[in-house]
Design brief:
The complex is a heterotetramer, with two copies of chain A (320 residues) and two copies of chain B (381 residues).
Chain A (H helix, E strand, L loop, with lengths): L6 H17 L2 H6 L7 H10 L13 H13 L6 H11 L6 E3 L8 E5 L7 E6 L2 E6 L15 E4 L4 E7 H40 L1 E2 L2 E2 L4 H30 L1 H29 L11 H13 L4 H13 L4
Parallel strand pairs in A: 1-3
Antiparallel strand pairs in A: 2-5, 3-4, 4-6, 7-8
Helix pairs in contact in A: 1-4, 4-6, 4-7, 5-6, 6-7, 6-8, 6-9, 7-8, 8-9, 8-10
Chain B lengths: L6 H17 L2 H10 L5 H9 L18 H13 L5 H16 L2 H12 L5 E4 L15 E5 L2 E8 L10 E7 L10 E7 L5 E7 L5 E13 L3 E2 L5 H12 L5 H18 L5 H29 L5 H26 L17 H12 L6 H12 L6
Parallel strand pairs in B: 1-4
Antiparallel strand pairs in B: 2-3, 3-7, 4-5, 5-8, 6-7
The chains are: A alpha+beta (320), B alpha+beta (381).
Chain lengths: 320, 381, 320, 381
């Protein structure tokens, strides 16, 4: 175990963090609502190479992508980094701009596909076919999180079958594992940033003559939150690492990281909002941005409880 | 001992339910949603016509003499119907204090117009640096001859844009401990120097920041004694404690169950389980509220009981609104009107709104202080 | 709604509370371990009439029994009050000493029947027969809670069929509803007593120069616990009342009260134990007695989660 | 960055696992269970023979030079095997402090006997009125010529009945702030005036109250400077933080999963779900422990990380041991050996034991203080 970033990783993180700090401040995040997409930011990110590095020949390990996804979460960057990375790895090439449906299509329609309101290519599992459908971005399904969700009719565009049968299922499953690991990293970034905001506020905001962070009721909850965030950082990074380097563990860890990530991000963002008192609800404070996004990421694949159940079968049922 | 509601209360319930079915129309709900102003003049005046605005007051003062129990029924039904009620509840919090602590002139000039549904009042308590700790208010009122000059700023002056008066907490003395240098005023919102700025919130409610720049009011605008504003505040705060918060949760459970039945998802064990848990918490929440009302009905102070009801139901609402979104999945987060949106966007709305309920009218932390100190007799920290 | 006890109820509660305070102090509770039965206490209680008042002609409403069950919980009284009351109401007469199996028999054996290690008659649902089996007390199945559990072979004693088919199922279901309501009252009593112990300890025990109850981390959890205990008192009493007076609501409320009661009692006893620091674990402190008993009461019918699921079907499924 | 364990650590792991399979026999476990003494001389000496008692020490001092990472592996395996380890862990906490702060004579006379597995040490820190607040100790040590006379009482002196020395915290000065009037001693348990009384606990562990009545020790029994005992305590406390608490939970999950598979209950959705949740928490708990070990391995102070690992894993253990009992039902609470008992009574045992893990070696409250103050930089309350 060696948890220090390599110098390459550090350079990558520094560059992208600097870029997002400059180009994706909270004002830009707000300005991109309700579509949740900043086209200018995305084209700059593409120029930087963050979209192409995800490709099989782009040289990046999944862990590298996870480190970038953390920053996308931290800065709430309105770009489909995770979707494009996962879709790019399925397609083996970059298309302007591809995404992937997280749930199997029903009657040929993939519902609420992340980034489909801004993408020109949607990958989906349609029965026993893994398909990519190209066309124009689809109409936004406006939502609480200001995410560019859209429903996608898989017969309405230019449809290409990428794989069928077991191969289709396996490739889709692998892509979802990668999505889970990267989504866990985004959730970590959201949670870590919500925690930072809470801690800073708790130090500065005074009530009854002292900083509210001096009250145990807040300090102790923040300690629990900080512990959960630290655990999430470790688990999400381990999941991304394992998908490349410890294949027998990768799927299990990605599922755990994603589910745990959803719980942590919702709790920490909710706590942070709560500590702000009435201010947390003012749209001009940033923490509500985190609160709204965390919830969608955590339910994007459907009921997390059902996912825990499937994980339990997978881990412990002799049958599976 | 018995848990049956009274016939009288249940006949009120039926009457209230029928009234609300008629007056809380989809159009009313839509307007509330769009503006974020949880008040509807039509509903408000129709309620005033029935003397329901101050139904707990004696008939001689324009009320109906309802006890806390009947008031709890009324509030439960308002919550269950999703009726806008900020206007009436804020107004009555202030009006109760004026009724107890105001001058004869104030009572004469304000109360009849409140009871007729003509005007609203709002509460100017919170400040940027005084949230839970209202007594540390800094908005200054300075005597100038026979009048007072007020300067400062208030946060979260909800309904100020519809109200005729702000029931304002000011500092009149900085030489004494913070609770002893406060004075209350009734400030007309058309006084020069009064300004407001809308504040939009996560839950969709609109509130306001209100600004006071050399706002001049006569001494007759003062409510209660100079420097004894905290006594007046305490009267007002005692009326701020509702008892029927649990009805929010009950409404959520009913909507969730209707959705689960309609989609067949109720057949999934974990969906049935989560709804049953939510329904159990709703039952407890309603009972804690009813208990608080009953203690009040018995003529005893019910501050601890009211705190328990408020604490439990608001925290449970946060848990279960989140759980319901989980059950439904991303569709739960679609905005009302989007193709495929669920239950008019009620669940995403409940999720956004729920956290604020653990803050306003006394944060969960303040409620826990009340319960542990006044209820359990634990020492202050 | 009228929550004041009637003068009759008050007299009943005062008498039984006085009796248990005198006859069932913590030393007696300990002395009755591991069987969990104090024969002398039980015969005195029978003399007082608390066993016969449960009978259909005993004049007691279920709510009266609930008030006594609360005291059994508060004092951790090692007597099968709840079991005997419910069994007596099934039989319509008092037998020395009857109890009831909470789970249907499997292969003619009812497992871990409460009080069967001290009872001479066991009622059980055996297939579609409601039976009572008489004989000697059965061998104790020693358990964490020091409760007189035993396995009961329903063909090993003198077996009488009380009812068959739908009637058997209905009478058994009614008895379980009553058991749930009274068990909820016992759980309330355990929780209320654990809370009292915690509050008293938090006022008296000093650390870092002040009573530990002055620390928000403890005070605020106690506030949550006190709220839950208050809610449980109301819900368990309402359930008992409704089983007599509002039959359409009785079953639902009894299920809720029992499940909620299990959660509250385990949480409050666990919290109280925790606040005691190391002392809570010393067997000579009383709080461990509560902690061990709460858990058994809460799982006596099996997995509470499964019971919540059944309740959900019952409440909300159009099919049920 | 990578999460792979080192080959070296994994070869240790295999070796330790093989060793424990041989030495932690059912008979050892049964004796521990019966006596409540979490120590086995046979196991202890076999470990000492392998230099595993102080494996983290440099070879020149009788250790093996293992880093925190290898130590974490050793501890994980001890926990996973359910091995008794109170004797060695309490002994090493004290011995580490003696190694740093003791006199040459103490090092010479005590350490070799510890490392050979000949003797145990125990910790005389807690007092009736000083639990989390150890520094308020009242047990008095008074100078009398060249020796010291000790009077007082210590709670929870676990393993005192097997130990050769108590590593004792005493008060030597009452005129100064509490942290500055403490002195540490190494008191032989055969000294006249030393007595102990067994204390049996909910979790089945035996601990002791120890009494000191005119216990006379020479000045050479003093560890560190007079009135500077707190500095010595801090060294000892820094060694009290293990990193592998998560392994308790991992063991519980493994036992629970084995039971669920054997009974077919794993096919129930809510059973699969709860085990998956527990397994997820176990993964997080193990990672937090490994992280803490890694920070230590990197030569940095890992107090906050150790607190996180301890806090999270002990609280998760409480939750999941309760959940597992729920899943199984009343059978889970049967004592080992009863007909129909489940997994050797492991689940009822875990339920009883789990809460104490949120208390000893720093209560959850103390861990949260460390995390919020040292980790997050929040002000003290």
């Amino acid at each position: 175990m060696e948890l220090t970033l390599t110098s390459d990783q550090e350079a990558l993180v520094d560059a992208f963090a600097g870029f997002l700090a400059k180009e994706s401040p909270p004002q830009a995040v707000r300005a991109a609502e309700p579509l949740g997409f900043d086209a200018r930011l995305w084209s700059k990110a593409v120029e930087m190479g963050v979209a192409t590095m995800a490709l099989p020949d782009g040289g990046a390990a999944l862990l590298d992508l996870a480190l970038l996804a953390e920053l996308v979460g931290r800065h709430l960057a309105p770009i489909p980094f995770v979707e494009a990375a996962v879709a790019g790895r399925v397609l083996g090439e970059q298309r302007q701009l591809a995404t992937i449906a997280l749930r199997p299509a029903v009657d040929g329609v993939a519902r609420l596909v992340p980034a489909a309101a801004v993408a020109t290519a949607v990958i989906a599992l349609d029965g026993n076919e893994l398909v990519v459908v190209e066309g124009r971005p689809l109409p936004l399904a406006a939502n609480m999180a200001s995410a560019p969700l859209a429903d996608c009719d898989l017969h309405a565009g230019e449809r290409t079958v990428l794989a069928t049968g077991a191969e289709a299922v396996a490739r889709h499953a692998r892509a979802l594992d990668e999505w889970r690991a990267l989504a866990a990293s985004v959730l970590y970034g959201i949670a870590a940033s919500a925690l930072d905001i809470a801690v800073a506020y708790a130090k500065q905001r005074e009530q009854f003559g002292k900083p509210i962070g001096a009250f145990q009721s807040i300090a102790h909850r923040l300690a629990d939150d900080a512990t959960a965030v630290q655990g999430l950082q470790l688990l999400s990074r381990k999941a991304a690492w394992a998908l490349d380097d410890d294949p027998t563990e990768g799927g299990r860890l990605a599922a755990m990281a994603y589910l745990w990530g959803g719980e942590v991000a919702n709790k920490v963002a909710g706590d942070s909002l709560h500590y702000h008192g009435g201010y947390g609800f003012m749209l001009e404070y940033d923490i509500q941005l985190h609160f709204r996004r965390a919830k969608l990421w955590s339910v994007a694949m459907g009921d997390p409880r059902a996912a825990y159940t499937r994980l339990g079968y997978q881990l412990f049922s002799g049958a599976a | 001992m018995n848990f049956a509601s009274t016939e009288r209360a249940e006949s009120f319930r039926a009457e209230v339910r029928g009234f609300l079915a008629e007056h809380v129309t989809d159009e009313v709900r839509r307007r509330v949603e769009e503006t974020g102003t949880h008040h509807d003049w039509g509903l408000h005046r129709a309620m005033a016509d029935r003397h329901w605005i101050a139904a707990s007051w004696p008939e001689e003062y324009g009320g109906l003499g309802w006890g806390p129990w009947e008031m709890n029924v009324l509030e439960e039904e308002l919550f269950l119907a999703g009726a806008p009620r900020d206007g009436m509840s804020l107004t009555m919090t202030a009006t109760n204090a004026i009724h107890h602590a105001g001058s004869d002139e104030q009572r004469r000039s304000v109360i009849p117009r409140v009871l007729s549904g003509e005007i609203l009042l709002c509460l100017g308590w919170s400040e940027p640096d005084a949230g839970s700790d209202s007594a540390s208010a800094k908005t200054r009122a300075a005597r100038d001859g026979g009048s007072w000059v007020i300067n400062g700023q208030k946060m979260f002056t909800t309904m100020a844009h519809e109200a005729t008066y702000v029931f304002l907490l000011t500092r009149t003395n900085t030489e004494v401990p913070k609770h002893r240098g406060l004075t209350m005023f009734l400030v007309p919102t058309d006084t020069p120097g009064f300004e407001l700025q809308p504040v939009h919130t996560l839950g969709g409610e609109r509130t306001n920041i209100t600004f006071y720049s050399d706002v001049r009011v006569p001494d007759s605008a003062r409510v209660g004694e100079v420097d004894h504003g905290w006594d007046v505040m305490r009267v007002a705060l005692s009326y701020e404690h509702g008892t029927s918060w649990g009805a929010h949760l009950e409404r959520l459970v009913q909507r969730g169950a209707a959705w689960a039945r309609a989609t067949g998802r109720i057949e999934e064990p974990s969906v049935a389980e989560r709804l049953a848990r939510a329904a159990t918490d709703a039952e407890v929440a309603m009972l804690l509220g009813q208990y608080s009302a009953w203690v009040g009905e018995s003529g005893r102070i019910s501050d601890v009981e009211a705190s328990m009801a408020k604490l439990f139901s608001s925290e449970a609402l946060v848990r279960h609104s989140g759980e319901l979104v989980d059950v439904i999945g991303p569709e739960a987060l679609l905005k009302d009107g989007q193709p495929g949106s669920v239950a008019d966007g009620d669940f995403e709305h409940a999720y956004r709104q729920s956290v604020v309920r653990t803050i306003y009218a006394g944060s969960s932390e303040m409620q826990r202080n009340i319960i542990s100190q006044r209820g359990l007799g634990l020492p202050r920290g």
